[in-house]
Write a structure and sequence with these properties.
Blueprint (H helix, E strand, L loop, with lengths): L1 H16 L9 E5 L4 E5 L7 E8 L5 E2 L10 E6 L25 H4 L4 E5 L7 E15 L5 E9 L20 E10 L18 E14 L4 E7 L27 E6 L3 E7 L1
Length: 269
């Protein structure tokens, strides 16, 4: 209702009917997490600055760089025959709810790496694009890398009221943003090239913008996986023309994500 009355209606009245005045800011954004409308003179906001969110051993995630070896890593087996689904149920077509769906089902999978911060002592607001900066290796010659930014609710978070779906909000892992990168395009979309097997490669890409506040008492989570079916078509994990790939081309691969990897957030201060 707020959007319709304060943004959409004045916009259409002004441009389609030469009616009234239009006094909209450069950016009028609904901030998820806090669930408030925010206005900014610039986008990303002028008071946003880049902060690194580092992945570490034992599923740790922190804004402070760790002192461990850059050669340390976590690994998983990616199997194209058993891809990670984008939702936890069977549905015909793409559900719009997937954009905020509970990711606990993915956290339980052995082919999904999960990292999370300690409980936040203060609100953390992220506004603008994200950058995934990964150091990875694969036993194959191509792979997908999906990075998901997730808001983890406290275990004692109250359920919604009314609660038609019976969703338990305690420990809810709300998807904030997810974005894939196909490794063959890591250097160029025009000139794809294979991954050298079992050698460390940097894969860095910009993820779409967010405007989200991780509230005090919540945690920030990053998940990394190599399939997101059927939002992303299955990668054979072999450098072939995927449109002409044969069944025999689809192969398991060992994926390693090194602890020098990070996600760069635009944090509003």
């Amino acid at each position: 209702m707020f959007y319709r009355e304060n943004i959409e209606l004045p916009f259409f009245n002004y441009y389609l009917k030469d009616k009234g005045e239009l006094k909209l800011p450069e950016a009028y954004v609904f901030e998820t997490g806090s669930n408030k409308w925010k206005t900014y003179d610039h986008w990303p906001p002028a008071n946003a600055h880049a902060e690194n969110l580092y992945i570490d051993a034992n599923g740790k995630l922190s804004f402070t760089a760790h002192a461990g070896s850059s050669d340390s890593y976590d690994e998983y087996i990616s199997d194209p025959a058993k891809p990670v689904p984008f939702i936890n149920n069977i549905n015909i077509g793409m559900t719009r709810e997937y954009m905020v769906d509970d990711q606990r089902f993915a956290s339980r999978r052995q082919d999904v790496l999960t990292y999370q911060t300690d409980v936040l002592a203060d609100d953390v607001t992220v506004a603008g694009p994200l950058t995934a900066s990964l150091f990875v290796s694969t036993s194959g010659t191509d792979s997908d890398y999906v990075v998901k930014l997730i808001d983890v609710y406290p275990d004692d978070a109250p359920d919604n009221n009314p609660n038609f779906t019976g969703m338990k909000m305690g420990g809810y892992e709300m998807l904030v943003r997810g974005e894939p990168m196909r490794a063959r395009f890591r250097k160029s979309f025009e000139k794809p090239e294979p991954m050298p097997p079992n050698k460390i490669e940097k894969i860095e890409y910009v993820m779409p913008d967010v405007n989200h506040t991780f509230m005090k008492g919540h945690r920030i989570m990053i998940q990394i996986q190599s399939s997101w079916f059927p939002l992303v078509d299955r990668n054979p994990q072999k450098f072939v023309d995927i449109y002409k790939a044969r069944e025999a081309d689809f192969q398991k691969a060992t994926e390693r994500v090194y602890h020098s990897s990070r996600v760069i957030l635009n944090v509003v201060k």
